[in-house]
Amino acid sequence: MSAASVAEVEVGASTEPAREYRPKKRWTRFLLPTYSTAFILYLSFPIFIIILFSFNDSRTGFGTAPRVSTAWLGFTTRWYQNLFEIPDLTKALEHSLTVALLGAISAAILGTLIGLALARYRYRGKGATDFVIFLSISSPEIVLGAALASFFVSANFDRGLITLYLSHTMFSIAFVAVVVRARASGLDRALEDAAMDLGAGPLVTFLKITLPLVFPGILAGFFLAFALSMDDFVISQFVQGPALMFPTWVVGATKVGIPPHVFVFASLIFTGGLLLAGAFALQVRRRR
Questions:
Q1: 134-178, pLDDT tens digit by residue?
Q2: pLDDT, tens digit, for every residue of 116-125?
Q3: Domain residue spans in the chain?
Q4: Which residues does 157 contact at the CB level (< 8 Å), separation at least 6?
Q5: CA 87 to chain centre
Q6: Is the pLDDT of residue 76 over 80?
Q7: Rounded distance, CA 172 to CA 141, Å?
Q8: Measured between alpha carbons, how far is 58 from 278 in angstroms, rounded to an integer?
Q9: Whole-number pLDDT of residue 165
Q10: From CA 147, how far away is CA 136, in angstroms rounded?
């Protein structure tokens, strides 16, 4: 073969496009997304049922109000229109919202201080503080409820909204402290040192630097405490006295039948929480 022919072959070979390497697609790539989707649907199924039955046209009796039927009897929105026609249920929900809001605010304040102390400082009794916090989280609620009820009875303290507020604040502090501690442990102390080097005092440094940095943890702890208080039944049953809470009222109503208004309230609470979470996530995304 001549030199010209060899050159033509080399030129032709160099002009051919290189083939891209494409890895073979395996069926296992669908495994994790399918499992995640199925798991989310499994956890959300009771919520879908609650929302569905809030529109069910139940006709069986619960005093003056209907009671839940397991059969679908038709679509209606009248439970949303007559949401407050059961006074005891409305009062119980008011008690739960009031105690949950005040208890979550108090737990957020106290838990934030404890979480910051555990994350940023060394002091005598730190190990004991850690032990008490995790003991409060791991203790069964029936033990806490019985202990609190015994304490209030021994102290001749009338059980009611005050004892509910004190009890819910007490068992929520530990959860807030753990969340805030995890957030504060990852903060860069150099930011606070730089602020103080530039003339900021301890209070200004805390308000301008530390507090904004740990605020997502505080907010998460607040919502966690609020949700725990709204959901609590065992401790509330021990310390509520004549002041019924929403979970205890619902459990008591199961003896005669749960009215569909309960599903309406639950749907509204879930929707409100979902909107708040979405608004918070949107705000965080905009900041980034």
A1: 888 888 889 889 999 999 989 888 888 999 999 999 999 999 999
A2: 988 888 888 8
A3: 90-247, 258-288
A4: 151, 163
A5: 28
A6: yes
A7: 12
A8: 32
A9: 94
A10: 12
The one-character DSSP state at 29 is G
Cα–Cα distance measured from residue 239 to residue 245, given in angstroms and rounded to the nearest whole number:
10
d(CA 26, CA 9): 38
Asked if residue 116 lies in contact with residue 184, where contact means CB atoms within 8 angstroms, the answer is yes
CATH of domain 90-247: 1.10.3720.10
Instruction: Give 66's DSSP letter.
Output: E
Q: Nearest Cα to 226, choosing from 95, 109, 108?
A: 108
Contacts 24+ apart (CB under 8 A), 244-252: 244/88, 244/91, 244/92, 244/95, 245/92, 245/95, 245/96, 245/99, 245/164, 246/89, 246/92, 246/93, 246/95, 246/96, 247/96, 248/92, 249/88, 249/89, 249/92
What pLDDT, in 10s, does the model give residues 202-217?
888 888 888 888 988 8
> Tokens 């494409």 identify what position?
22
207 contacts 144 by C-beta, under 8 angstroms: no
Residue 100's identity, in one-letter code, is A
d(C-alpha 100, C-alpha 172), whole Å:
10
Question: In angstroms, rounded to a whole number, what is the distance separating the alpha carbons of residues 191 and 193?
Answer: 5
What local confidence, expressed as pLDDT, does residue 194 receive?
Answer: 86
